[in-house]
Amino acid sequence: MLLFAVGFLLVILQPSTGQFPRACANTQSLLRKECCPPWDGDASPCGELSSRGSCQNILLSQAPLGPQFPFSGVDDREDWPSVFYNRTCKCEGNFMGFSCGECKFGFSGRNCTERRLRTRRNIFQLTTSEKDKFLAYLNLAKNTPSQDYVIATGTYTQMNNGSNPMFRNINVYDLFVWMHYYASRDTLLGGSNVWRDIDFAHEAPGFLPWHRVFLLMWEREIQKITGDENFTIPYWDWRDAEDCVVCTDEYMGGRHPTNPNFLSPASFFSSWQVICTRSEEYNSQQALCNATSEGPILRNPGNNDKSRTPRLPSSAEVEFCLSLTQYESGSMDKMANYSFRNTLEGFADPRTAISNISQSGLHNALHIYMNGSMSQVQGSANDPIFVLHHAFVDSIFERWLRRHRPMLEVYPAANAPIGHNRENYMVPFIPLYRNGEFFKPSRELGYDYEYLQEPALDSFQEFLIPYLEQARQIWAWLVGAAVAGGIVTAVLTGLVLACWKRRRGTSSEIQPLLIESEDYNNISYQSNF
Questions:
Q1: Own/partner pairs for 216-224, CB < 8 Å, 24+ apart?
Q2: What is this structure's pTM?
Q3: Which DSSP letter does residue 146 get?
Q4: Where are the beta strands (DSSP E) in 137-257?
Q5: What crossing angle do the helices spanning 456-473 and 385-404 adopt, rounded to 10°?
Q6: What is the b/e burial string over 3-40, where b = at least 16 CB atoms within 10 angstroms of the residue's CB?
Q7: Digitized pLDDT (tens) for each residue of the chain, 529 residues in all
Q8: SS3 at position 118
Q9: May I ask the CATH class of domain 120-421?
Q10: What backbone phi and psi angles, to 5 degrees, belong to 96?
């Protein structure tokens, strides 16, 4: 009752962040290919009168793509968002948003000049009231219509190239479910033909930055609809877990007493309806998911195919993954070997980093283990465990960034699968975000993780790890260089001494054996690495 009461009291309509801005989902905007709504503060497009931003042409990356998608001009998501819009708001300074009406992640205040750092916490470290508030917020998002955004129910061609807009309203939670679906759906090629080897959010370098943006946007929307500016997504640390410890009525919903595939009626999640789960039906109809309800959340944790995912991931597997020095490698898709991204995503063995798509490790293992709505990629965000899981995956990404301190150039600039190059805009976000913009430490984006806030000594050790790793890789060269340096030093020293003795013209027998004390004090010793 407490959860429903809190949810009722919090039901207020506020703006939502997502895909197509409502202000741009009309014939005029689509035909002009322009999405530059006025900022409420001064009624000028992009807040230009207040120097917040201006309406500008979109600059698309021209870098070559990988071979995984052999088509061009058949998918609305190619060169996002140019099929729909080629002019959007370009915000200045710390301003952000489709109308430059918000602050960049990590900033707040009237002029977006105040830095903020929020901390994401382990869900089991929350107090009972904090945990109940989080659950109430989830339910509120499921029942609050998005004010600023709508979803597309047809392709651009089906919209008659913009003259017949096809959009519909959606609630805040399902908006994010739909975005996850839209980024990972198959390409519709006409008739009954589809292309399945395409995904703008998975199976390639953008997997981690894309979900980082997704969580930041989701987190911000909860802050907006609740008025709770301090809200952060909790995470579930699933390392070494014996079973789904969050799958209880106290947390994310227990098992139904008579049907193990359903949630317990004691949890309000049992009344939630899923959307965007029938990919084969959409493909056969050459249609997009229109967010129609498709039944309750399904979940039967642990009763999955054990040959594919025998258990939940271990701490040792996470540590091995963190030791990998390459963010991406080879084909930069699910066949990549020794790739941190591919190993964390779960297409490479978490003990060897060799690609093995017949098994599901780390991130993928958790999805498969849940054995229900969360196990199908396009509709996986329907299960609220999704955000707990991906917050922890993001924390592993954050640990890797802090340990290896990669330059931006480490993220591939070219030849990645479609949509995943460094300068590509992420599908389907408006405002626009590039993949490379989120290949940076979380503190620069305004958040941290509770378990990563370690004492100074541990932080110093973490700082040293990448340098020690580099030293280990070149130890033979270092030893060889040291030996060679010693030989050269000895030879030079001998030559200098010989010349010195010859110049002095005095036999060694009459030279003093000890240095006078005043000369000794003037000698300095230096150690060079």
A1: 216/105, 216/445, 216/447, 217/17, 217/18, 217/176, 217/429, 218/176, 218/387, 219/447, 220/17, 220/102, 220/105, 221/16, 221/17, 221/18, 221/141, 221/172, 221/176, 222/137, 222/141, 224/14, 224/15, 224/16
A2: 0.84
A3: -
A4: 149-152, 167-168, 187-190, 193-195
A5: 60
A6: beebbeebeeeebbbbbbbbbbbeeebbeebbbbbbbe
A7: 444 444 443 333 333 334 799 999 999 999 999 999 999 999 999 999 999 999 999 999 999 999 999 999 999 999 999 999 999 999 999 999 999 999 999 999 999 999 999 999 999 999 999 999 999 999 999 999 999 899 999 999 999 999 999 999 999 999 999 999 999 999 999 998 999 999 999 999 999 999 999 999 999 999 999 999 999 999 999 999 999 999 999 999 999 999 999 999 999 999 999 999 999 999 999 999 999 999 999 999 999 999 999 999 999 999 999 999 999 999 999 999 999 999 999 999 999 999 999 999 999 999 999 999 999 999 999 999 999 999 999 999 999 999 999 999 999 999 999 999 999 999 999 999 999 999 999 999 999 999 998 654 344 554 554 554 455 445 454 445 555 666 656 656 666 555 555 554 444 333 333 333 333 233 222 222 2
A8: strand
A9: mainly alpha
A10: -155, 170
Q: At residue 268, what is the residue type?
A: F
The residue written with tokens 């227990």 in the block is 254
